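Render this sequence as a predicted structure.
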Amino acid sequence: MKIRLLGCGGSFGSPLAWNKTGNIDINNKRNFRTRSSVLVTIDNTNFLIDCSPDLRQQLYDAKCTNIDAVLFTHLHSDHVAGLPDIRAISLINKKIIPAYMPEIMINEITSNYNFIFNGTKDYEPFMTAKILENNFKINNIKIETFKHNHGSIDVQTYRIGNFAYSTDLKKFYNNDLDKLKNLDIWIVGLLRPDQHEHPSHATFDEIMEYIDYIKPKKTVFTHMTALLDEKETLKKCPPNIMPGYDGLELIL
């Protein structure tokens, strides 16, 4: 399994805009972050987790010309607005690409992106929406998923083998955190470094408590704002925990 962090920035990316650099060192290229999405490759099958607004450039940089399925975490625009960029992938491969999402997402996604899923007089549809199940297979590859809390909405955590992805995380429900034990790699959202409560994102200390409990072999932060400088964050972390960066590739 190869996991490529296509983008690891929050909803604004990092830095926010020209000369609005927050706390990052702009001389460090790893602090320049596009919006969050991940490419997972297993036996020539490519899973895309979320379609960030920066997707076209992300796939170009990854030299990726084929997607077998898209897995959506939630409805927020920084995770779905790159959907139109899938059209090129569909045309190149001459296929309709399935998009797996919670049932609560389907009406809004297929309505907002009607030309993608239903076509118009000028466009043939190039994706199909599929209701997400807790356990399912694509090309005989097992995928597990469950909801976690992101403030006023829920988001999907995905687990594929010993890899899991939990972006936009506030807290887990019930005993769901136990489903993330025995991981080799956990990619988890960390919005900012401070300890001020946020209505929809966990603090650094809360994320570290989750890590201490499930004990993944390696943890990589994603969905980071320009308040998180890579080198300053590394100073706070043990060797098996690190902030991600665009283009980071991990092999299992």
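Summary. The mean pLDDT is 97. DSSP finds seven helices and 14 strands in the chain.
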